[in-house]
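[job 4471] stage=fold_predict status=RUNNING
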Amino acid sequence: MPAKFTVYKDKSGQFRFNLKAGNGEIIAVGEAYPDKKSCLKGIASIQKNAPVAEIVDSTIEAPKTAAAPKAKKPAASKAKKPAAAKPKKAAPKAKKPVSPPPAEG
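[job 4471] inference complete, writing structure tokens
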């Protein structure tokens, strides 16, 4: 059995179509159209343009250019911050040696 387009109304009353392969599997789905005439025009456009349509594979990574790389933003950390540690007491400062008072004489 050859492929066929099926026109139907969706739950909101809009016209849609799908394309079924010979085995009955849906292989394409059209957008919602406000009226049947527009839906049929959508089908006609596919019938006309599909045989010559270019395939664009957007899963292939684009080649790298010489442009400067974009700066990455640091990832926000969801880890809890550790509790603030109690400040350590400062070690006592070493006292300067006191010179003896001048000798009287």
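[job 4471] summary: The CA atoms of residues 51 and 61 lie 26 Å apart.
[job 4471] exit 0
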